[in-house]
Amino acid sequence: MPPQVIGVAIAAGCGPVPSTPAPARPPIEITTDAELDPKSVPAYSGDHAKVYADIDRKQAQHLANVQRWLRQPSVSAQNVGVQQMAEMVRDDLKKLGCQESELVPTAGHPGVWASCDYGAPKTLLV
Q1: Domain for residue 46, yes or no?
Q2: Alpha-carbon distance 79 to 125, whole Å?
Q3: CB 115 within 8 A of CB 99
Q4: CB-based burial of residue 112 (10 Å sphere; 0-12 exposed, 13-18 middle, 19+ buried)?
Q5: Tell me, what DSSP letter sits at residue 111?
Q6: Can you tell me whether residue 100 is helix, strand or coil?
Q7: In this structure, is residue 8 part of a structural domain?
Q8: Which tens digit of pLDDT belongs to each residue from 14-36?
């Protein structure tokens, strides 16, 4: 059974992607046309004590990353820092272990594309 795409978010204002050959990428099959009904999603009841412990242990590092992102100017309407922010996102995705992470040139601001395949049965597109 192919992976199921469970969410899609598209950044506004990116414009069309130029027609250049793209590298071969894994196929993604959207297997549903159902709309999300947030009221139908049950409250999360998972237990991830190890994850939370790791977050707590690395709290200073996580806070430093949030502060670094907040310090980076990125004002789309004024074209201030947008390229640098896109590069920061790309680089951070690489550091997180994404197999691919690249800037996508558009007629407007750059987009960021990344692929992180860890063998999960579902795929999330953001």
Answers
A1: no
A2: 26
A3: yes
A4: buried
A5: E
A6: strand
A7: yes
A8: 444 444 555 677 777 888 888 88
Kindly give the residue spans of alpha helices, DSSP state H, lying in 1-126: 49-57, 59-71, 82-95
- Give the 3-state secondary structure of residue 54: helix
Please give the model's pTM, rounded to 2 decimal places: 0.61
Domain region containing 103: 1-12+59-126
Residues paired with residue 15 on neighbouring β-strands, in sequence order: none
Residue 27 lies in a domain: no
Rounded to whole angstroms, what are the CA distances from 67 to 9, 32, 63? Answer: 24, 38, 6
Q: Would you give the end-to-end CA distance of the chain in angstroms?
A: 22
**Domain annotation covers residue 28:** no
Spell out the alpha helix ranges (H) of 20-58: 49-57
